[in-house]
Amino acid sequence: MTDASQNPGRRGLRAWLVEEDVTSHRQAVAQGAYRGLVGLTSSPIAVIGLVIVILLVLAAAFAPWIATHDPYRQDLSRTLLPPSAANWMGTDDLGRDVWSRLVYGSRTTLYITMLVTVIVAPIGFLIGAVSGYVGGWLDTVLMRLTDIFLAFPSLVLALAFSAALGPGIGNAVLAIALTIWPPVARLARAETLTVRGSDYLASARLQGAGLGRVLWWHLVPICLPSIIVRLTLNMASVILTAAGLGFLGLGAQPPIAEWGAMAAAGRQYLIDAWWLTTFPGLAILLVSLAFNLLGDGLRDVLDPRSG
Amino acid sequence: MIEVEDLQVFYGEGRDRFHAVRDVSFRVEKGETYGLVGESGSGKSSVLNAIAGRHSDWTGTVRLAGAEVDPRRRNPADRQKVQIVFQDPFGAIHPKHTIGGTIAEPLAINRRQNRGETVDALLRQVGLPGRFRYRYPHQISGGQRQRVSIARALALQSPILLLDEPTSALDVSVQAEILNLLQDLRRDQGLTYLMVTHDIGVVGHMCDRIGVMKDGRIVEELTKAQLVRGETAHPFTRELLSESLLG
Amino acid sequence: MSDPILSVRNLRVTFPSLAGRIEAVRGVSFDIGNEKVGLIGESGSGKSLTGRSIMRLLPKAAHPVADRMRFDGKEILSLPEGEMRGMRGGEIAMILQDPKFSLNPIMSVGDQIAETCRIHLKLSKREARARTLHLLEQVHINDPARVYPLFPHEVSGGMGQRIMIAMMIVARPSLIIADEPTSALDVSVRGQILRILDELRAERPTGLLFITHDLNLVRRFCDRVLIMYSGRIVEELPASRLDEAEHPYTRGLLDAIPRLDRPRDRLATLQRDPRWITEEAGR
């Protein structure tokens, strides 16, 4: 939608995006995106979520320019200072600027959410879709495996994994990913079952399509919207779990700025220096909420039944 | 072109095993249209699915273009002989693919060259403008979807098309256009049709010969002329005719 | 005609869309008395929306307006929702194409009819059961006691439609809106359903709006036909004189039907005239 220069003029852009007479593949894709955007922005709540998530991305991308201090530079002469003009959100017990650490912490948060998505979506889809499409004993085996993972409380499982893998943000993410793929697999299986007997899959089979083609070309477009929605809604709990692991010392290791770990570090100064826990806590709350709102909005837009 | 001998089709396993089609035999010559008529549950769609390879639990002999097919294993040559046009224009096309992508799929699966031009030619054959290839199914009408479905079935140049109630979900005016299109394609490309329907009017218009099915058997076989004159021997056919004909 | 049961004047239904507002029903007027009125049209002609407007069962985005939509002395479009709810399934009943969507999937069909009896007729549990069995018999279900405990997914399409009708007659509606009630059924079952509807109407005056795309069916079953095209009624005539229709659209539809008694090499296809969309109905 950005290449308006190649389209028939700026004024005609909207017409180009809504007209029924589609003349190129690019236009078809752009129209789909436009309809999604219009749908998403028609819900004010989803827009709030979207804006906060975009702000998060911007903060992560431009952290060096937004931060007022070096997030890692310690200054033991300026510890535990309350919020002021020089340090907008005060300083921590090592004299580091809380605002700057919060800004850099958005990178960690984004890193966690992206890594979890990249790991969980393919695993969940593959297990769910194969299970639903192939059926039979393979379905039974894969679903029982999923059940076993589902049966553990996810935080406990994540704790066990990250304890076994060793502390660190990467391992924490891996541990979280291992605990949240089962619902995604269930979802992918359910979506697959609804289209398994459809005529277009029958037609593809009659034309000789193999499993790989059916999965990639037919089932991915069917399952992807609900997986995206599910993962977006899950992001809040992922961020909270990551924060929880950080809080327990199993997530990000010092001196990396991570909101959960920051909140944990401020715990011992809760009475004297409220800003240490409050601001990271608020940031976690805000971003979790934003992902939830965005997920709700996406559900309305991407619902495959409305396509 | 199609020879079916002593076909038995089963569904289910063990005690629930259901004998859906019993001792069905018929032949369809090249360029002919053969109609299977009957009520729901008469087994007419089961016959079609068995021939298409969509259902594999059957016994008997099925020969397509002279070569016998194995119920369990279809080789690529068998697949290219026969394609289906489905009843429901909404369910037969992937909702998230463009029309062009849908028609090109059989070409891609079978690694054909020049897909872009072939898709253009196929769209022209079924009477759709070339720019439709960029549209999504929800942007076109039911009749247009059925044309897309036909274009996809034609893509591999299969000599046999199986038509599973191809117009029963369409309005009469659109039905007329699709039936005319099917007639033209058959004449121009020398196709052989096996058509399943419950509409006596459609069968009388399209088919050279008709097999009337009831409870999994063909109870009567008629030519088009016999059907039009109402020369039926079997009471069930007469009942079908009287219910379908104008009061 | 004496006082009509339903009188509709200038009904319009609009939808918002990306490209502005779309008017799907554009000024429809008709009356229904104690008769069977067929409403014919293609998909997208607005025939189902017209039927649903009478029940006030439109999609949320739809916006219906009418100069008049009077049923039993009441303006349907301005009734409070609570009163309307009592009317649906009460004085006005609707039969849809697929009964599976109208029945509760986790309740046996007998219990569903019995519940309707208890709500509408204030019967006791035992009376409701007896009444239900009687009703099932009335819609020609041979062994009501066997059908009573079945769940909706266990009954065939024709059986489901009969159950819907049985449930409907509990309240003795004076207007029935049937939206493609027999399109999914085999011809022999279709005949039975139509006969049941006729028997029902013989008991008391009932208006029937029969929405369908099947011209042959309307010709045989209905008294009067309304032909809808692109949100308007373009022609209205007695069903017995359908073959004498004058509007080119109706003529085109009639010619497009493949008929055994008139075999042709090619079917006539409809040439749509843009004027049909704008011009007023002839009569």
UniProtKB/TrEMBL annotation, chain A:
GO terms for cellular component: plasma membrane. GO terms for molecular function: dipeptide transmembrane transporter activity. Residues 110-295 form the ABC transmembrane type-1 domain. InterPro entries: BP-dependent_transpt_permease, MetI-like, MetI-like_sf, OppC_N. Keywords: Cell membrane, Membrane, Peptide transport, Protein transport, Transmembrane, Transmembrane helix, Transport. The keyword Transmembrane applies. One of its GO terms (biological process) is protein transport. It comes from the Bacteria. The keyword Ribonucleoprotein does not apply. The chain crosses the membrane at residues 45-68, 110-135, 155-181, 231-253, 273-295. It is a multi-pass membrane protein. It is found in: Cell membrane. Its main location: membrane. It holds the Pfam family OppC_N. This is Peptide/nickel transport system permease protein. It comes from Wenxinia saemankumensis.
TrEMBL record, chain B:
Keywords: ATP-binding, Nucleotide-binding, Transport. CDD domains: ABC_NikE_OppD_transporters. One of its GO terms (molecular function) is ATP binding. SUPFAM superfamilies: P-loop containing nucleoside triphosphate hydrolases (SSF52540). Pfam families: ABC_tran (PF00005). The keyword Phosphoprotein does not apply. GO terms for biological process: transmembrane transport. Residues 2-240 form the ABC transporter domain. The keyword Transferase does not apply. Belongs to the ABC transporter superfamily. PANTHER family: D,D-DIPEPTIDE TRANSPORT ATP-BINDING PROTEIN DDPF-RELATED (PTHR43776:SF7), TRANSPORT ATP-BINDING PROTEIN (PTHR43776). This is ABC-type dipeptide/oligopeptide/nickel transport system, ATPase component. It comes from Wenxinia saemankumensis.
TrEMBL record, chain C:
It comes from the Bacteria. Keywords: ATP-binding, Cell membrane, Membrane, Nucleotide-binding, Transport. It is found in: Cell inner membrane. Residues 8-255 form the ABC transporter domain. This is Peptide/nickel transport system ATP-binding protein. CDD domains: ABC_NikE_OppD_transporters. Pfam families: ABC_tran, oligo_HPY. It comes from Wenxinia saemankumensis. Belongs to the ABC transporter superfamily. The lineage of its organism: Bacteria, Pseudomonadati, Pseudomonadota, Alphaproteobacteria, Rhodobacterales. GO terms for molecular function: ATP binding; ATP hydrolysis activity. It is a peripheral membrane protein. InterPro entries: AAA+_ATPase, ABC_Ni/Peptide_Import, ABC_transporter-like_ATP-bd, Oligopep_ABC_C, P-loop_NTPase. GO terms for cellular component: plasma membrane. Its main location: membrane. PANTHER family: DIPEPTIDE TRANSPORT ATP-BINDING PROTEIN DPPD, OLIGOPEPTIDE TRANSPORT ATP-BINDING PROTEIN APPD. SMART domains: AAA. One of its GO terms (biological process) is transmembrane transport.
